[in-house]
Amino acid sequence: MSLSNLSRPGEPTGPPDPRPKTSDDNPTPPAAAPDRRVTPNSWQPLLRRLHFYAGIFIAPFLIVAAVSGGLYAISPSLEQVVYRDQLSTDSTGDARPISEQVEAAARLRPDLTLSAVRPAAEAGDTTRVLFDDPSLGASKRQAVFIDPVTLESTGELVSYGSSAALPMRTWISELHRHLHLGEPGRIYSELAASWLWVIAVAGLTLWISAYRARRKRRAADLVAFDRSATGRNRTRNRHGVIGVWIAVGLVFLSATGLTWSKYAGEHVSDVRTALSWTTPTVDTSLSGSTSGSDGLGDHSGHGDHGGAGHEQHVPEASGQTIAQLDRVLGTARAAGVDGQVEVSIPTDADTAFTIAETRQPWQFAQDTVTVNGATGAVVDELRFADWPLAAKLTTWGIALHMGILFGWVSQLVLLLLAIALVVLIVRGYQMWWQRRPKRGGAVAVGRPPARGALRRVPVAGAVAIVVVAAVVGWFVPLLGLSLLGFLVVDAALGIRARRKRVGVVTDAESESSGLIDSR
After folding, report:
1. Which is it for the CA torsion 471, 472, 475, 478, positive or negative?
2. 380 and 299 in contact (C-beta within 8 Å)?
3. Which of 407, 357, 484 is nearest to 74 (CA)?
4. Spatial separation of the C-alpha atoms in residues 143 and 128, rounded to whole Å
5. Are 51 and 45 within 8 A, CB to CB?
6. What residues pair up with 116 in beta bridges, in sequence order?
7. Which residues neighbour 497 within 8 Å (Cβ) at sequence distance 6 or greater?
8. Lateral strand order in the sheet of 368-371
9. Over the Cα atoms of the chain, what is R_g?
10. pLDDT in tens, 406-456
11. pTM recorded for the entire structure
12. H or E element at residue 202
């Protein structure tokens, strides 16, 4: 057979291109330069690829954070039910002085150092007396619950942190924060918080861009389900609409969650310190001060505490210190610090009592005073109204993140937000599955968006992206490191795919050459 018989007029004489055509590999003619004109769609391929990969690989962490976070959000209400025997009492009558209540608890735990007390705020509540116990670990104290009327104990539980969380809420909190793995486990929650806002913003931008690209569109199409959609379009519609509903909430959870994180949290603290946005503190020192007569915090009227008639150094809260509690509480209430408070008990004569309003539902201001236990004079006071605005916003944000700020209302909203996030992620994976090749086998999945997204962005935009990514990656380290990891893996896969295609072409050319030679 002659060489001319291997081809027909008008057809290429070379072997057919054996490379598979996929949406991920769209080769362009070598002579065609990439179009870098600025258009509304310039950013879409990059955002789509970023949203896809972040969604695929970060979503498992987000699911764990959403489930544990939803449980933590409602844990303050669950706590009231689970520990009702310790937190409440049926006793009726007049409450005994707070000093007697604390003494009753101290007799039960003489082996521990008295730390603070949270007096019963209403009839039917118990008083929580807190003791330092080195065996419990950081930020944990032993709480003894005392009936204010009978002075009997209703039980003992471990209390955690400034929110005084009890064991169930503490367990859920530690699951949400570090999966009960300690410091190494915090990487999971910080990774989830670092990427959550990126995924939410990218997804929202893509959904709005797709809406604007429609020839016929209604405002309702952005936020309402399309009941006529079927198949993958139905899944995509549900995914997009739910994302619009909860986008603001996801960004809020991401921002507030990062304040608790280890690496990004340190940068947040540095910025707050540099801008004087930190929460102010009160002065608790009594050294070199004299007692004032009006109890209104006149700093110039305090004398030396080293003279006769004043308490000497005591390594632990003595009976005399406990006896001062009623006077201290009276001063604090007269100064406007009342309701549910925590009284920090000093362990030496040079330190004042600190009375601070605790974080409670529908309470937007938390005032604090320090009081000289020996004289009942106010040493210092800190009014919430005097806090920097950023400190106020941080406090409110933390309380809202914890499900406390608006009580059961915020808890319900956070629970629904967590459920919606899980549904959103499941819909995302469902879309990925529905994009799989029909002939790809049982384990085939959808192809990722096409490579080369950054090359399609205008040069100035590409440079800006790299700079912004570097700055954000430095401020949020786990975001930067994981993004760099995505790029390295993606580049390696791209190189592998190109080598594989070159190998296929080489083999095909060899087979064609052998066929020609044999003929």
Report:
1. negative
2. yes
3. 407
4. 6
5. no
6. 130, 344
7. 25
8. 153-160, 140-146, 127-132, 113-118, 341-344, 353-357, 368-371, 378-382
9. 33
10. 999 999 999 999 999 999 999 999 988 888 776 655 555 556 666 666 667
11. 0.80
12. helix 186-212
